[in-house]
Amino acid sequence: MSHEFQNDVPAQDKTRLEEIEALMATADFWTDKDEAQKIVREYQSLKEGAGEASASSDGDIHNSGSATIGILAGAGGDDAEDFVRMLRKMYEAYADKKNWRVIELHENENDHGGFRNVLIELVGKGVYGRLKHESGVHRLVRISPFNANSKRQTSFALVEVLPTLTPQDTVVLHPDDLEITFARSGGAGGQNVNKRETAVRITHKPSGAAVHVSSERSQIANREKAMALIKSKLYAIEEKKRATEAKGRSIAATTANEWGSQIRSYVLHPYKLVKDHETGYESHDPEAILSGNLDNFIDEIAAHRVQ
């Protein structure tokens, strides 16, 4: 598996990017929060505007492209599945603010309007670069609407953000490593709904990675999309391994701990707080965050990763 990139950033933009990176590294950069946020947005804009073939600060050529987001319910029962619904709504609202197109690829809905898992594609410029750091475990604390005693419930959901691969990426799939199954697609529709097995699930047996696509009308189209997504998922797994090894950490321990450490908490009771656990950035307006106002959190993590 390999990929290449070339940096086509104009000289003037490159100079400004270097200036901003130096600013971000200073101790008092965040003294004026409003000005800092403005500078970070300029930084992101310069990076995203460098073109399809350019690399961002982390050398990732996928930042300027679209992305696929998978959200999976973890511990928490009905609350966790409702949390998946809330996160889906949050990302779709953010996409709407950015004028990105949202395409539903698959959903597994429960009887309460929540989702066991959901897969959506966000199509637009700079989607992956903005949302890549949303990958990880998200935690919700609130009074459960599903508990008759109105007890506080903690639930978890895993968010996975996959890049749209480029022609420079090479992911080799061996047919013997794939398990491909078909099922009837659900959802509202006319008399032909659920009559044909158009939904496709592909599992990569060596890694356990799996994708399920049911959005297209034909089995062929769903299979093609699922194959592209399994490649993206395997690419992401390899990139995570490389990053982990570069930091001298155990790959096995990191994978085993996937559900063990959350990247962000959303507390709705007994107080209101959304906190990013890597940067320490906080907001006391969880309703606004869950309504898609994510830019401050995204800018903070982008600046943090540059330092």
Outline the structure in words.
The protein is an alpha+beta fold and 307 residues long. 35% of the residues lie in helices and 24% in strands. The strands form 2 sheets. It has an 8-stranded mixed β-sheet. The chain has a 3-stranded antiparallel β-sheet with strand order 6-7-8, with helices on one face. A hairpin with a 5-residue loop joins strand 10 (273-276) and strand 11 (282-283). Helix 1 runs antiparallel to helix 2 (33-48) and helix 2 packs across helix 8. The longest helix has 28 residues, at 219-246. The radius of gyration is 20 Å and the shape is globular. Mean pLDDT is 85; it is low at 1-8, 50-56, 187-195 and 253-257.
Report on the biggest sheet.
8 strands, mixed
> How many H/I helical runs?
8
Q: Kindly, what is the distance between the CA atoms of the first and last residues, rounded to a whole number of angstroms?
A: 28 Å
Radius of gyration: 20 Å
Poorly predicted tracts of residues: 1-8, 50-56, 187-195, 253-257
Biggest sheet strand line-up: 2-3-1-5-4-9-10-11
**What structural class do helix, strand and pairing data support?**
alpha+beta
Oligomer state equals: single chain
**Helical percentage:** 25-40%
Shape, please?
globular
In round numbers, the mean pLDDT is: 85
Beta-strand residue percentage: 15-25%
What series of H and E elements makes up the topology? Answer: HHEHEEHEEEEEHHEEEHH
Secondary structure tally: strands: 11
